[in-house]
């Protein structure tokens, strides 16, 4: 698939821009993932009860959801680069406050919520930049590489955070801020990718998000977010009930990441060349079957094998949906369109954690079967509503051929 012939080539992206963007994301996400096992302990060690812990964990998710579309509007109006850089600078500053334990617990909860808002404001700019830098025929491949870079960070980050917490639990926030700061170095080499930036409301065309090319993938992302968050809450309890400790929990997460790391590039290439109405629902159904089967498994080896199959299925889902949104949106509205997708996904994480996660105490199988049901519903919606091929919107940048370093990103 190529850009329409009547779309002007505004300018060419520097060689290596995608490499620097994904390298920075890998470094940053490693630091952010360091917080995953620490956040509840951080609150508990400061006298917080279960309500305070819930506020500390849920506050950033809610803030992340609410700021995505407004931040996407800013990315469309003022450009991608300011949000790429300054939202991360804000995150570093807020992480420093949490590291230093400045103020009472309610202040720390507020700071953590603002940190979630900074993260949410960064996401539409990241996704829009990656879309701008990639020709339509490779966008799912690029989003799969982004997923792989975050997965690599997920493998290393929690272990790093746990080690630092042996010294000081707030140290995980210091490490998080430090890695985000280091990740800004390669990000500084990423240029502004939006060629035309309307500065006034009159100059900006009206954005209509209620169209199939945005709503249908966003509903699929809601299902994916619901599943992810359900696992965040339930998975340690599920393995603990089967007699496995923290080491095995970490091992299963690391092994789950391996198929995503190795399959990201070929899966993305396949998705760019395959009917989305078949590929995405099929991946959803594979994941749903795996999820529904976990309550019936009691020993580690079958659990690990099902997890590898599930990872091979999930590698197609999220990148294909974001690529479908980004490719269908014109340059002047990509930030907002991808912000809608991000809002749906993070709304799903809030629902999955708060509702499905809490149902584990009622019945151990209910969260898994609930997550599987959402994936089945997402498969039906995508099968009926996804375009077979994404409609190409006007492009901002036509990139040069990938460099050797870019080809090596997985």
Polypeptide structure, described:
The protein is an all-alpha fold. The protein has helices at residues 17-33, 39-44, 50-78, 80-100, 105-132, 139-165, 171-187, 212-241, 246-272, 276-293, 300-328, 334-356, 366-385, 404-407. It starts with 16 loop residues before the first helix and ends with a helix. The protein contains 14 helices and no strands. 72% of the residues lie in helices and 0% in strands. It folds into two domains: 11-194, Growth Hormone, Chain: A (Up-down Bundle); 209-391, MFS general substrate transporter like domains (Growth Hormone, Chain: A), CATH 1.20.1250. Helix 6 (139-165) crosses helix 11.
Give the topology, please.
Blueprint: H1 17-33, H2 39-44, H3 50-78, H4 80-100, H5 105-132, H6 139-165, H7 171-187, H8 212-241, H9 246-272, H10 276-293, H11 300-328, H12 334-356, H13 366-385, H14 404-407
Helix pairs in contact: 1-6, 1-7, 3-4, 3-5, 3-12, 4-5, 4-7, 5-12, 6-7, 6-9, 6-11, 8-11, 8-12, 8-13, 9-11, 10-11, 10-13, 11-12
Poorly predicted regions are 1-12, 391-410
State the CATH superfamily name of the largest domain.
MFS general substrate transporter like domains
First-to-last CA distance: 23 Å
Summarize the helix and strand pattern as letters: HHHHHHHHHHHHHH
* Helical proportion, percent range: over 70%
Corresponding CATH architecture of the largest domain: Up-down Bundle
Instruction: Tell me the number of strands.
Output: 0
Q: Could you say what the CATH topology of the largest domain is called?
A: Growth Hormone, Chain: A
Percentage of residues in DSSP E strands: under 5%
User: What's the alpha carbon Rg, rounded to whole Å?
Assistant: 20 Å
The count of helical stretches stands at 14
């Amino acid at each position: 698939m190529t850009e329409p012939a009547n779309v002007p080539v505004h300018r060419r992206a520097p060689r290596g821009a995608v490499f620097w963007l994904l390298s920075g994301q890998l470094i940053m996400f490693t630091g952010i993932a360091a917080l995953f096992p620490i956040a509840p302990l951080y609150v508990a060690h400061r006298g917080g009860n279960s309500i305070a812990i819930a506020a500390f964990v849920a506050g950033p998710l809610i803030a992340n959801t609410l700021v995505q579309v407004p931040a996407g509007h800013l990315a469309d109006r003022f450009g991608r680069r300011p949000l790429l850089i300054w939202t991360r600078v804000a995150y570093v500053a807020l992480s420093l406050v949490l590291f230093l334990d400045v103020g009472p617990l309610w202040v720390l909860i507020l700071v953590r919520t603002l940190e979630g808002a900074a993260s949410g404001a960064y996401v539409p700019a990241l996704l829009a930049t990656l879309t701008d830098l990639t020709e339509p025929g490779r966008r799912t491949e690029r989003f799969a590489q982004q997923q792989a870079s975050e997965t690599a960070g997920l493998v290393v980050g929690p272990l790093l955070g746990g080690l630092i917490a042996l010294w000081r639990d707030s140290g995980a926030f210091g490490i998080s801020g430090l890695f985000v700061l280091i990740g800004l170095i390669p990000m500084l080499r990423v240029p502004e990718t939006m060629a035309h930036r309307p500065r006034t409301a009159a100059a900006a065309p009206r954005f209509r998000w209620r169209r199939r090319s945005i709503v249908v993938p966003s509903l699929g992302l809601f299902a994916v977010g619901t599943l992810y968050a359900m696992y965040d809450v339930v998975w340690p309890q599920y393995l603990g009930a089967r007699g496995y400790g923290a080491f095995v929990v970490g091992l299963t997460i690391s092994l789950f990441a391996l198929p995503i790391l190795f399959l990201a590039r070929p899966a993305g290439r396949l998705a760019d060349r395959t009917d989305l109405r078949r590929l995405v629902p099929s991946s959803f159904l594979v994941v749903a079957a795996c999820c529904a089967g976990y309550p019936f498994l009691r020993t580690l080896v079958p659990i690990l094998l099902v997890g590898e199959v599930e990872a091979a299925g999930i590698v197609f889902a999220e990148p294909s949906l974001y690529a479908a949104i980004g490719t269908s949106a014109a340059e002047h509205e990509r930030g907002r369109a991808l912000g809608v997708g991000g809002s749906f996904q993070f709304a799903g994480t809030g629902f999955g954690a708060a509702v499905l996660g809490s149902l584990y105490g009622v019945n151990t199988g209910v969260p898994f079967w609930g997550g599987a049901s959402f994936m089945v519903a997402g498969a039906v919606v995508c099968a009926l509503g996804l375009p077979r091929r994404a409609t190409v919107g006007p492009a901002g940048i036509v990139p040069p051929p990938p460099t050797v370093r870019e080809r090596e990103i997985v």
